[in-house]
Design a protein that fits this description.
Chain B: This is ER lumen protein-retaining receptor. The complex is a heterodimer of chains A (10) and B (213). By secondary structure, chain A is largely without helices or strands. Chain A contains no helices and no strands. The chains are: A little secondary structure (10), B mainly alpha (213). At the A-B interface, loops of A face helix 1, helix 3 and helix 7 of B.
Protein backbone atom coordinates (compact mmCIF):
# COMPACT_ATOMS: atom_id res chain seq x y z
CA UNK A 1 0.00 0.00 0.00
CA UNK A 2 0.95 3.63 -0.31
CA UNK A 3 0.54 6.49 2.12
CA UNK A 4 -1.93 9.00 0.63
CA UNK A 5 -0.39 12.21 -0.67
CA UNK A 6 -1.25 15.22 1.45
CA UNK A 7 -3.92 15.18 4.11
CA UNK A 8 -7.42 15.33 2.72
CA UNK A 9 -9.18 14.02 5.83
CA UNK A 10 -10.41 16.28 8.59
CA UNK B 1 -14.98 10.87 -0.37
CA UNK B 2 -17.02 7.83 0.52
CA UNK B 3 -20.20 7.39 2.52
CA UNK B 4 -18.40 6.41 5.76
CA UNK B 5 -16.18 9.44 5.64
CA UNK B 6 -19.14 11.72 4.91
CA UNK B 7 -21.24 10.22 7.71
CA UNK B 8 -18.25 10.48 10.04
CA UNK B 9 -17.76 14.16 9.27
CA UNK B 10 -21.49 14.84 9.63
CA UNK B 11 -21.44 13.05 12.96
CA UNK B 12 -18.53 15.25 14.05
CA UNK B 13 -20.48 18.31 12.95
CA UNK B 14 -23.57 17.05 14.80
CA UNK B 15 -21.58 16.47 18.00
CA UNK B 16 -20.49 20.12 18.08
CA UNK B 17 -24.03 21.35 17.38
CA UNK B 18 -25.34 19.12 20.19
CA UNK B 19 -22.73 20.52 22.57
CA UNK B 20 -23.56 24.12 21.61
CA UNK B 21 -27.26 23.33 22.00
CA UNK B 22 -26.65 21.86 25.44
CA UNK B 23 -24.68 24.90 26.62
CA UNK B 24 -27.15 27.42 25.16
CA UNK B 25 -30.40 25.79 26.33
CA UNK B 26 -29.26 24.84 29.83
CA UNK B 27 -27.17 28.04 30.01
CA UNK B 28 -24.54 25.89 31.63
CA UNK B 29 -21.43 23.95 30.79
CA UNK B 30 -21.84 21.62 33.72
CA UNK B 31 -20.43 18.18 33.00
CA UNK B 32 -18.23 19.38 30.13
CA UNK B 33 -14.47 19.22 30.51
CA UNK B 34 -12.85 22.55 29.69
CA UNK B 35 -9.55 20.75 29.28
CA UNK B 36 -10.89 18.46 26.57
CA UNK B 37 -12.42 21.42 24.74
CA UNK B 38 -9.17 23.39 24.98
CA UNK B 39 -7.24 20.39 23.60
CA UNK B 40 -9.58 20.31 20.59
CA UNK B 41 -8.72 23.94 19.83
CA UNK B 42 -5.03 22.99 19.88
CA UNK B 43 -5.78 19.94 17.68
CA UNK B 44 -7.63 21.97 15.05
CA UNK B 45 -5.16 24.87 15.00
CA UNK B 46 -2.14 22.60 14.60
CA UNK B 47 -3.79 20.32 12.03
CA UNK B 48 -5.39 22.94 9.84
CA UNK B 49 -2.31 25.11 9.35
CA UNK B 50 -2.55 24.13 5.69
CA UNK B 51 -5.51 26.51 5.43
CA UNK B 52 -3.00 29.35 5.60
CA UNK B 53 -0.46 27.76 3.28
CA UNK B 54 -2.64 27.69 0.22
CA UNK B 55 -2.94 23.89 -0.11
CA UNK B 56 -6.45 23.77 -1.51
CA UNK B 57 -8.33 20.45 -1.21
CA UNK B 58 -11.96 21.42 -1.76
CA UNK B 59 -14.60 23.91 -0.65
CA UNK B 60 -16.04 21.18 1.60
CA UNK B 61 -12.65 20.65 3.24
CA UNK B 62 -11.98 24.36 3.81
CA UNK B 63 -15.50 25.08 5.09
CA UNK B 64 -15.35 22.19 7.56
CA UNK B 65 -11.91 23.23 8.81
CA UNK B 66 -13.06 26.80 9.37
CA UNK B 67 -16.16 25.54 11.15
CA UNK B 68 -14.17 23.28 13.48
CA UNK B 69 -11.68 26.02 14.38
CA UNK B 70 -14.41 28.64 14.83
CA UNK B 71 -16.83 26.50 16.82
CA UNK B 72 -14.17 25.08 19.12
CA UNK B 73 -12.90 28.60 19.95
CA UNK B 74 -16.50 29.74 20.48
CA UNK B 75 -17.09 26.85 22.92
CA UNK B 76 -14.02 27.90 24.91
CA UNK B 77 -15.37 31.44 25.01
CA UNK B 78 -18.76 30.18 26.27
CA UNK B 79 -17.10 28.07 28.93
CA UNK B 80 -14.48 30.55 30.10
CA UNK B 81 -16.42 33.81 29.92
CA UNK B 82 -20.13 33.56 29.19
CA UNK B 83 -21.05 30.66 31.49
CA UNK B 84 -17.94 30.64 33.59
CA UNK B 85 -19.67 30.14 36.99
CA UNK B 86 -21.21 26.87 35.76
CA UNK B 87 -17.84 25.27 35.16
CA UNK B 88 -16.29 23.51 38.13
CA UNK B 89 -12.50 23.17 37.72
CA UNK B 90 -12.37 21.05 40.90
CA UNK B 91 -13.74 18.02 39.01
CA UNK B 92 -11.84 18.70 35.76
CA UNK B 93 -8.51 17.55 37.13
CA UNK B 94 -6.91 15.38 34.46
CA UNK B 95 -3.31 16.47 33.89
CA UNK B 96 -3.12 17.57 30.25
CA UNK B 97 0.69 17.54 30.36
CA UNK B 98 0.44 13.75 30.28
CA UNK B 99 -1.33 14.01 26.94
CA UNK B 100 0.46 16.94 25.27
CA UNK B 101 3.99 15.82 26.19
CA UNK B 102 3.83 12.26 24.85
CA UNK B 103 1.92 13.44 21.74
CA UNK B 104 4.72 15.88 20.98
CA UNK B 105 7.41 13.25 21.50
CA UNK B 106 5.54 10.74 19.31
CA UNK B 107 5.15 13.40 16.62
CA UNK B 108 8.88 14.08 16.64
CA UNK B 109 9.60 10.37 16.19
CA UNK B 110 6.73 9.23 13.96
CA UNK B 111 5.84 11.66 11.20
CA UNK B 112 5.84 11.61 7.42
CA UNK B 113 8.42 14.36 6.95
CA UNK B 114 10.68 16.43 9.16
CA UNK B 115 8.98 19.73 8.48
CA UNK B 116 7.17 21.91 10.97
CA UNK B 117 3.82 21.43 9.25
CA UNK B 118 4.12 17.62 9.11
CA UNK B 119 5.31 17.34 12.72
CA UNK B 120 2.41 19.53 13.87
CA UNK B 121 0.01 17.46 11.76
CA UNK B 122 1.20 14.24 13.40
CA UNK B 123 1.06 15.93 16.81
CA UNK B 124 -2.57 16.92 16.18
CA UNK B 125 -3.46 13.35 15.23
CA UNK B 126 -1.90 11.90 18.39
CA UNK B 127 -3.36 14.60 20.59
CA UNK B 128 -6.85 14.16 19.14
CA UNK B 129 -6.67 10.45 19.90
CA UNK B 130 -6.39 11.16 23.63
CA UNK B 131 -8.04 14.60 23.94
CA UNK B 132 -11.29 13.05 25.16
CA UNK B 133 -9.59 11.59 28.24
CA UNK B 134 -10.16 14.56 30.60
CA UNK B 135 -13.86 14.39 29.64
CA UNK B 136 -14.12 10.64 30.19
CA UNK B 137 -12.16 10.98 33.43
CA UNK B 138 -14.63 13.60 34.64
CA UNK B 139 -17.52 11.32 33.76
CA UNK B 140 -15.88 8.50 35.67
CA UNK B 141 -15.36 10.78 38.65
CA UNK B 142 -18.90 12.13 38.84
CA UNK B 143 -20.38 8.77 37.81
CA UNK B 144 -23.26 10.34 35.90
CA UNK B 145 -24.01 12.65 33.00
CA UNK B 146 -26.88 14.63 31.57
CA UNK B 147 -28.47 12.77 28.66
CA UNK B 148 -27.65 15.55 26.20
CA UNK B 149 -23.97 15.32 27.16
CA UNK B 150 -24.00 11.60 26.43
CA UNK B 151 -25.51 12.28 22.98
CA UNK B 152 -22.63 14.70 22.36
CA UNK B 153 -20.10 12.03 23.32
CA UNK B 154 -21.88 9.37 21.29
CA UNK B 155 -21.81 11.56 18.16
CA UNK B 156 -18.14 12.32 18.73
CA UNK B 157 -17.32 8.63 19.20
CA UNK B 158 -19.38 7.69 16.12
CA UNK B 159 -17.35 10.16 14.05
CA UNK B 160 -14.13 8.35 14.92
CA UNK B 161 -15.74 4.94 14.59
CA UNK B 162 -16.99 5.77 11.08
CA UNK B 163 -13.50 6.77 9.96
CA UNK B 164 -12.47 3.11 10.33
CA UNK B 165 -14.70 1.68 7.54
CA UNK B 166 -13.67 4.79 5.56
CA UNK B 167 -10.02 3.69 5.76
CA UNK B 168 -10.89 0.12 4.82
CA UNK B 169 -12.85 1.46 1.85
CA UNK B 170 -9.93 3.64 0.81
CA UNK B 171 -7.52 0.75 1.04
CA UNK B 172 -9.59 -1.22 -1.48
CA UNK B 173 -10.55 1.74 -3.69
CA UNK B 174 -7.21 3.63 -3.95
CA UNK B 175 -4.73 1.25 -2.32
CA UNK B 176 -3.70 3.88 0.21
CA UNK B 177 -3.28 3.56 3.98
CA UNK B 178 -2.35 6.39 6.32
CA UNK B 179 -0.72 4.43 9.17
CA UNK B 180 -0.44 7.40 11.56
CA UNK B 181 -4.11 8.29 11.20
CA UNK B 182 -5.24 4.65 11.34
CA UNK B 183 -3.32 3.64 14.47
CA UNK B 184 -4.22 6.84 16.34
CA UNK B 185 -7.82 6.47 15.14
CA UNK B 186 -8.07 2.92 16.45
CA UNK B 187 -6.76 4.04 19.85
CA UNK B 188 -9.17 6.96 19.85
CA UNK B 189 -12.16 4.76 19.03
CA UNK B 190 -11.08 2.23 21.64
CA UNK B 191 -11.28 4.89 24.35
CA UNK B 192 -15.01 5.17 23.71
CA UNK B 193 -15.83 1.47 24.10
CA UNK B 194 -16.71 1.62 27.80
CA UNK B 195 -18.76 4.73 27.26
CA UNK B 196 -20.65 3.17 24.34
CA UNK B 197 -21.45 0.10 26.42
CA UNK B 198 -23.23 2.24 29.03
CA UNK B 199 -24.76 4.47 26.34
CA UNK B 200 -26.35 1.54 24.51
CA UNK B 201 -27.42 -0.42 27.57
CA UNK B 202 -28.76 2.53 29.57
CA UNK B 203 -29.25 5.85 27.78
CA UNK B 204 -30.82 4.39 24.63
CA UNK B 205 -33.14 2.33 26.84
CA UNK B 206 -34.43 5.58 28.32
CA UNK B 207 -32.42 5.45 31.53
CA UNK B 208 -30.05 7.98 32.99
CA UNK B 209 -26.32 7.65 32.31
CA UNK B 210 -25.02 6.37 35.62
CA UNK B 211 -21.93 4.34 36.29
CA UNK B 212 -22.09 1.52 38.82
CA UNK B 213 -20.51 2.64 42.09
Amino acid sequence: FEVPEGHDEL
Amino acid sequence: MNVFRLLGDLSHLASILILLHKIQTTRSCRGISFKTQALYVVVFLTRYLDLFLGDWVSLYNTAMKLFFIGSSCYILYLMKLRFRPTHDPAIDTFRVEYLVGPSLILALIFNYKYTLVEILWAFSIYLEAVAIMPQLFMLQRTGEAETITTHYLAALGAYRGLYIPNWIYRYFSDGTVDPIAVIAGLVQTGLYLDFFYVYFTRVLQGQKFELPA
